[in-house]
Amino acid sequence: MSLLGTAASAAEKRLHLRAGLESGQLQRFPGAFSPLVAKLVAEIGFDGVYVSGAVLAADLGLPDIGLTTLTEVATRGAQIASATDLPTLVDADTGFGEPMSAARTVTVLEDAGLAGLHLEDQVNPKRCGHLDGKAVVETAEMVKRLRAAVSARRDPNFVICARTDAAGIEGLSAAIDRAKAYADAGADLIFTEALRTRADFERFRAAVQTPLLANMTEFGKSELLSARQLSDIGYNVVIYPVTTLRLAMFAVEAGLREIESVGTQSDLLDRMQHRSRLYELLRYADYNQFDSDVFNFVLQEAQR
Questions:
Q1: What would the DSSP string read from start to end of 180-223?
Q2: Shared-domain flag, residues 224 and 282
Q3: Both 206 and 259 in a single domain?
Q4: Which of the residues 91, 110, 165, 188 is marked catalytic?
């Protein structure tokens, strides 16, 4: 990671993601709600960064019901992707409109430096994948959405992932049939949303040859399987989309309530990231050295 940008180009990050999908090793992508969190994801040693649509909406104070725009997603996605040398996968909802909109979404997010995106087969406006009352479009309509997206891709290594929400609506067999159709339409990766049990994940893996992504979100419909379990089943990617936001918001709420009731934060210091740790993560010392190397001149007295 270079000081003022990433050492890896967007193209190199996409190659890295492709290699990960083909490695036979489970790729772990925690969600990052900010570039700073992405830096921590990279430092700890994960394989990639995920940008959740639900988290982006929540960060804007909105529910996850399709209210965010392509511009908002692209802007935040670009900021997060630029923070590390890891590949970043972004949630692109339903593509923000008709198939032509999905095509434009690919070009915009590709230009923003993302390594890949996922599109889902819900109707517009979409809703959180772990809520009841979802509806999915016909398979043929989602195939059009995907074909449009694939046709717009300029970098062949930009990953297009197809998410199906059909398991909880039409049943697991129908979701498997959709996954196969989406792979035939050009999807590089299949996101199996809201499967309930390990047996469901195993059945999906046995039926579909395309690389698979598992969503291990908390408080949802899916059993929380470990990375080892998902690896043993044969999944290729696991995302933890909202985990970091939930951890942060729990701590923020507890801290604010204590300040409001007690009148000081003095008893919270051992629950805070220390200033020195933040500076370490942000590489303050390296920036200071950079300043010293560049701004090493001395102002002379002005000539009369």
A1: HHHHHTT-SEEEETT--SHHHHHHHHHH--S-EEEE--TTSSS-
A2: no
A3: no
A4: 91
